[in-house]
Design brief:
It is a single chain. By secondary structure, the protein is an alpha+beta fold. The protein folds into two domains: 1-39, no CATH class; 41-71. It is built from one helix and three strands. It has one helix spanning 45-70, and strands spanning 11-14, 18-26, 29-35. It has a three-stranded antiparallel sheet with strand order 1-2-3, with no helix packed on it. A hairpin with a 2-residue loop joins strand 2 and strand 3. It starts with 10 loop residues before the first strand and ends with a helix. Belongs to the CsrA/RsmA family. This is Translational regulator CsrA.
Length: 71
């Protein structure tokens, strides 16, 4: 993991087409802006984790139903 120190107004580039802009630092919160092509999905980590857990639960339930129907 690369760890960088940035101040408001400073940027970080990922490749040639994704720019991360530090817009504000207030207490223990940092606000960032992300400029990226429309085809790049940007999702908050906690939302991504919730979707993953929900999908895993749905697969397990589907497998349970399938097992009951095969008996």
């Amino acid at each position: 993991m690369l760890v960088l120190t940035r101040k408001p107004g400073e940027t970080i580039w990922i490749g040639d087409d994704i720019e991360i802009v530090i817009t504000e630092v207030k207490g223990d919160q940092v606000k960032i802006g992300i400029r990226a092509p429309k085809h790049v999905d940007i999702v908050r980590g906690e939302l991504r984790q919730a979707v993953l857990e929900s999908n895993t639960e749905a697969v397990v339930k589907s497998l349970d139903v399938l097992k009951k129907n095969l008996k």
